[in-house]
Bifunctional protein FolD
Amino acid sequence: MTATRIDGKAFAATVRGKVAKGVAALNTAHGITPGLAVVLVGEDPASQVYVRNKGLQTVEAGMASFEHKLDAETPEADLLALVAKLNADPAVHGILVQLPLPKHIDEAKVLSAIDPAKDVDGFHVLNVGLLGTGQKAMVPCTPLGCLMMLRDHLGDLSGLNAVVVGRSNIVGKPMAQLLLGDSCTVTIAHSRTKELAEVCRRADILVAAVGRPEMIPGDWIKPGATVIDVGINRIPAPEKGEGKTRLVGDVAYDSAVQVAGAITPVPGGVGPMTIACLLANTLTACCRANGLPEPEGLTA
Ligand code: GUN
């Protein structure tokens, strides 16, 4: 049996459509336009691509996009001053400081300076704590996107065995909290986990977020499991020509697709959901800031 391919690209387009509808309704009924500010420090090429795509999709959804590009030598104090300005700006409902930041800047300090109500990345410790205690939080975009795809594919997740491979603050830990919130039995595994293959084989839901190309082979997967591959790894592809590369996930897709019940491909799986959820979070933050009901189906 071949697994169902979960089409993240199509699902993300649906989410963006719902966001655009919510934005239009907010504008018509209340004259409010949600605004997202994105701050990029330095010239990291991958970050520049992300930021450009974020800006385009924000405008496409009918929201206001504010981009702040600072040079790589910007002092930490200047970045903190910009964050304070954005915190105080009523036209800005969401603030995202693109990571990684240059080495001379204390990332934790900057993330803590963002108003938690505008923290559309969900990285502020207050939001981490709210999520961990089952309260209303801003939730990190990538795990939120994974949760949406899982609910869409499986419906009720309660009682399922979920294994998250990876313990990062951006994906692994919040993903585990979200699955726990949906009443899964959750295991967080990582590179030091003993008998990792055995642990993975118990998973009805397997989320791979380790950043190691094709680390999880098909024979680590329980037959019929739902596999969410968060990895985006660029590897050499000599078959495409000299110096060429291709993207692969943390799961060995060709073998996994023979065993799993459903699986997200790379590219075209989780990736497109991240920006879609950023837009969803911006709309949610705007609704909360104005004391209005939250958009349905776009929150955890
Ligand atoms: N860099 C790579 N992914 C992300 C993300 O989701 N948020 C931020 N702020 N930086 C990133």
Notes: The longest helix spans residues 8-30. The pocket of guanine is lined by residues 96-99, 121, 141, 274 (CB under 6 Å).
